[in-house]
Design a protein that fits this description.
Blueprint (H helix, E strand, L loop, with lengths): L15 E11 L4 E7 L11 E5 L8 E5 L8 E7 L7 H4 L7 E5 L16 E7 L4 H6 L3 H6 L2 E8 L6 H12 L4 H4 L3 E7 L10 H7 L1 H6 L9 E7 L1 H13 L13 E5 L4
The protein binds adenosine-2'-5'-diphosphate.
């Protein structure tokens, strides 16, 4: 029997925040999102990740999760895969409103506006739950202050896995704070590889063939104007990174901003 992640069944470690789940939404049998209270003292930059866990063991399992909500939001949102027998997600997928989630205190990450030089267009390349940090960034006005156009690409195997991205694009467009910035400047480009939808194919193939740029009405990637952020599986990161480098973009970091940055979508 596995312990249900309801009330804390073990003492909460001193070095973590203990927060309360406020909302859970399941998208498919593999994907869900949840929101939880945000500690008053917790600060982060949109695009960063934190380590989260459940108080269901003396030594809880922690996993890195990108914060999917923007830095100004009063709650924290996360988007998660459900891994069969996954040490954390097996339990996490059963959480309900009112349950406790624990979170280490320090956020970190490279998918932040500070790690990129100013540019005209920001491309956010994501597959699967790799969309999470971009869910945060497309809802942050700072992203639109820095870039004229924000292009979020999201590729999944099946149509149902794209739902969260469509909801986000709608929320960003309708949000009283961000909507005005995002209007006409946020381009959401969603593709599938194993089920028929209006746009099909791996993002790598769509970059190489030029179809991505044709479909969104933007020029091919160039290092003078374009910036990139990549988040997905290891294989996807490697392949997109290679394509950006072939086109003259250079990988940056917090302490050395450049023209693209990479982060893996952690939980698998
Ligand atoms: P495909 O269906 O052709 O494998 P996964 O669920 O395996 O993480 O995949 C998520 C999405 O990322 C799928 O649409 C998958 O396409 C695509 N993908 C997987 N590997 C790569 C890669 N190396 N480059 C680009 N896209 C990839």
């Amino acid at each position: 029997m596995t312990a249900a992640p309801t009330a804390a069944s073990f003492p909460i470690p001193a070095n973590v925040f203990a927060e309360t789940v406020t909302e859970v939404q399941h998208y498919t049998d593999r994907l869900f999102r949840f929101r939880m209270t945000r500690p008053a003292s917790f600060r982060f930059r949109s695009g960063e990740f934190v380590m989260i866990g459940l108080p269901n063991a003396e030594k809880p399992v922690f996993r890195a999760y990108s914060i999917a909500s923007p830095a100004w939001d009063e709650e924290l949102e996360f988007y998660s895969i459900k891994v069969p027998n996954g040490p954390l997600t097996e339990h996490l997928q059963k959480i309900k409103e009112g349950d406790t989630i624990i979170m280490r205190k320090k956020p970190t990450g490279t998918l932040v506006n500070d790690a990129l030089l100013p540019g005209k267009r920001l491309y956010m390349f994501s597959t699967g739950t790799g969309i999470a940090p971009f869910a945060s960034l497309i809802r942050d006005p700072e992203t639109y202050e820095k870039f004229d156009k924000v292009i979020l690409t999201h590729t999944c195997r099946e149509a149902g896995e794209l739902t969260y991205g469509f909801e986000l694009a709608k929320i960003a467009a309708e949000d009283p704070l961000v909507g005005e910035f995002a209007a006409g400047r946020l381009i959401h480009y969603a593709t599938t590889t194993r089920e028929t939808t209006p746009h099909m194919g791996r993002i790598t193939d769509l970059i190489v063939s030029g179809k991505l740029f044709e479909d969104i009405g933007q020029p091919p990637l160039n290092p003078e104007e374009d910036r990139g952020m990549i988040c997905g599986s290891m294989a996807m990161l490697k392949d997109v990174k290679e394509l950006l480098e072939e086109r003259g973009l250079v990988e940056g970091a917090n302490n050395a901003p450049a023209t693209f940055v990479v982060e893996r979508a952690f939980v698998d």
